Amino acid sequence: MIGAFRSAWTMLARPVLLWPGLGAIILFSVTAITFTFMTAAAPGGSRLTDPPLTLALLSAPETLSMMVGRPVMITGTVVLALAIIQITSQYSSGFVRIAFVYQPRRALWLVGNWLAVAAAAVIASVVGSLVALAATLVCAAAWGVDTSSWGDDIGQTIGAMGNLALGMVAFAVAGSALAVWLRSPIAALASGLVYALFENLLNAAAPFGQGLLPVSAFSTVATSGLGGEPYWPSLIATTVLLTAIVAGTMGLVTSRDVTE
Amino acid sequence: MIKQKASHNGALVVMRIVSALELVSLVVILTNRFTVHSPAITSSGGPVHGLLYVSTIVFALLLPFPRSAKWLAVIPGIGGLLALRRARLVSLRTAVSDFAVEKPRERVVLSEEDRREAVAVVEGAVACFARSLEVGPLTFTVPEGGVTGLIGPNGAGKTTALRMLCGLVAPAAGTVTVRSASGVQEEAAETAPVAGVLIDSPGFIPGLTAHANLLALTRLAGWPPQFVDHALERVGLADASGRRVGTFSLGMKQRLGLAAALLGKPRVVILDEPTNGLDPRGTIELRAFLRALAAEGITVIIASHALDEIEELCDHVVAMNRGHVVFNGPPVEMTSPLSAGIRCAARDPEALVIAAEALAHDGLPVRLVDDVTAFIAGDADVGERVNRVAAGAGVFFSEISPRRPSLQEAFLQLTSEGGADAPHPVGAPVLTAVAR
Predict the structure, then answer these.
(1) B216:A8 CB<8 A
(2) What is the pTM of this model?
(3) Do the beta carbons of residue B325 and residue B108 sit within 8 Å?
(4) How many beta-carbon pairs under 8 angstroms link A with B?
(5) Residues of B in contact with A109 (CB under 8 A)
(6) Looking at the complex, does the CB of residue A139 fall below 8 Å from at least one CB of chain B?
(7) Which of A126, A140, A11, A219 is nearest to B204 (CA)?
């Protein structure tokens, strides 16, 4: 299994994938945090949240935990794209055919790829969190936010970073599954994004599934439930969904013809 | 290529329709939670859905699933999926058995000696994809060492046969056996793959370097990383190992594909159209390289529709046509049913007719190839007699040359209507007339 992971990591850790991905995470993390402070500094606070987020509210102890989860959508999108490209590039180039001859246990190939994209997801979430924390400290100093109580909640902040990593791993596994099913990077990326939009509409029309359907469940876990949805039902839904995705994808990879 | 549609008997069609309707109704029920509710048709307690649901459960329970999976049938939707899946499997099996009943012309019969000397034995193997039969049944052997060529026109089933040999396609019927190593490998030891492959176009990730592509394969297979440098050196790509594959020429990619095939120091190397994209010099070098591999004791299996290439390179030939093996043996045996002879060309048709009449009168088996060319079956000594008889009739041929039957002619003969039992168009690509 270690060999399969190292093989997949060799393919994933290529500069053409890694640097643009990390660059996007850093850029959007800084942008998201700066935007949060800018809107909070506006008269009446940010209207994007209920109750409106103000600079006074940002001095609360849980601000760091909340800020860690701010770049979740961009980190999730980058991780999803990385996972999709990792798998589809092997299919579209024909690499997978040689790979399956030299490693006939296809499940091992898939597990190796999952471990690699999960590792990339963890790295991406750590980078995103650290950049978000740094940007938060800089912005707090710039807008004169009182940070004296932030140190009271370091444990929760670390927990939030763990949750972000967990949510990103879920996005990575889901992206890999899409890639295995569709085998085309464009189709898989488009399907993922279109589904995310569809789920948003569905949640708006019928809040019944909010926090339980894939995108909202993974996002709720990644933001530690600070976005308004309850954390534990989302964690359970994420576990169930990931189990189903893993089982379905494993069955598909081991049984499907790869020569077409 | 053989393509036989899966059977569509009534029960399977009904099973498919009911299962599909049950799944559709389930989707409607789920979405109706959020939209308009129409209980008579689509609610979970509705009569239509109830009927569909129960019938798919019955279908699924009656079908020979593994006992542990039967309980899944009672979950809404799963019963339908199981029934659909089963319908597909039954279709395929019926198609395979129908095909077996047909007993297509099988020209190849393996002896015990064939099996003993072979590194790979394919017996009655059928490749089956999706809803149709593709190739087979195939029966042939690959003798140990040397170069074996799979020949045949496009769509004959060569690539599928290779895919079965390297395990990418599991035969739906019959067996494919490739013997494991017998002391050929040293460093590779137990981890060596039985076969190295270059199937279809060389499949590499363009954004990675040549070294990284091979390293990924090496790590996946569990071989030592130094195998990568060794393989790259063997194909002359050591200097380009740090370059991205996307910048490689077609010939370099082909060589990298060869390096991937040799990566695990296999005892059998399987190559599909390896000279595709190579320039003449590259083709000559590759042929020499493959002969060198064979000299090392590695069995090389090569698929090609370039028969001259196979004739020059191979010690053993497996000829395929329309999904079947029509010949399995040495090239000499394949061409032996065809006679060698003398090809004569006259300046004008009238002279040829005069000469042909004289030759036929002298008891020589002469055939007219075209208006000015004739073919006389026989060994090289016939040439002198042909020359003498024609000169006696007052005709001097502008060309008299010995001709040996080629693999191409033998293949055309084998795949022509009537096969080996039909009259031979000996030594002539096109036979337009016989001696008068």
Answers:
(1) yes
(2) 0.71
(3) yes
(4) 95
(5) 220
(6) no
(7) A11
